Amino acid sequence: MSMPSFENHLPAPFRRRRADGRTLFLGLLALCSAYLQGPLTKIFDFPGAIAEMEHFGLHPAPVFAVGVIVFELSMSALILAGIFRWAAALALAVFTLAATFIALRFWELPLGMERSMAMNGFFEHVGLVGAFTLVAWHDLREHGASGKGPTS
C-alpha cells in the first residue's frame, strides 16, 4: 500500500508512530469515550436516564434509555474491535447528528450564555460526526465493506 504524498514528507519516526496500532486504538478510544461513559452513567443511574429521555420527549422513555445504552456500547465495541468499523462509525455519526438536533437546538434559545453554550455543544457534536465519517471512510478504504482484510 502506498502512502499519500504528505506522509512521504514526514520523518520516519512520525510515520512509524502514525502507523502504530496502539496509537490508532487510543485515538478511537478517545473518539468513543463519550459513547462509553454516557451509557455507563445511564446504567448506574437508570432513573436519571429515563428522566433524560422524558426531557427530550422520547417515549416510552425506558425503552429509549435501554436502546441508547445498548446502541452506544455496541457501536463503540465494534469500532474498537475493528469489526465492521465503517458501519459502526457511520451509525454513531447518524445517531450523533440526530441527537444533536434533538438536544442542542441553540437557535430556539434567547441570546446569552445558555445559547452560546448550546451552540458550542452543537458544533462540537458536528465535529464528532465528521470524525466518525472519517473513520468510516478510512476503514472502507483499508478493508472494504466486508470489514475483513485490505481491498485491492
Give a short overview.
By secondary structure, the chain is mainly alpha-helical. It is built from seven helices and no strands. It has one domain.
| Overall mean pLDDT | 90
Overall structural domain count: 1
Coarse morphology = globular
Structural class by SSE content? mainly alpha
Q: Which band does the percent of strand residues land in?
A: under 5%
- Strand tally, please? 0
- The percent range for helix content is over 70%
Gyration radius over CA: 18 Å
Q: Spans with pLDDT under 50 lasting ≥5 residues?
A: none
State the major sheet: none
Count of helices?
7
Description:
- This protein has 152 residues and is mainly alpha-helical.
- It has one domain (21-144).
- Helices cover 77% and strands 0% of the residues.
- The chain is built from seven helices and no strands.
- It has helices at 5-8, 12-19, 21-44, 46-55, 61-81, 85-103, 113-143.
- The radius of gyration is 18 Å and the shape is globular.
- The mean pLDDT is 90.
- It holds the Pfam family DoxX.
- Its main location: membrane.
- Keywords: Membrane, Transmembrane, Transmembrane helix.
Keywords:
single chain, 152 residues, mainly alpha, 7 helices
Give the topology, please.
Blueprint: H1 5-8, H2 12-19, H3 21-44, H4 46-55, H5 61-81, H6 85-103, H7 113-143
Helix pairs in contact: 3-4, 3-5, 4-5, 5-6, 6-7
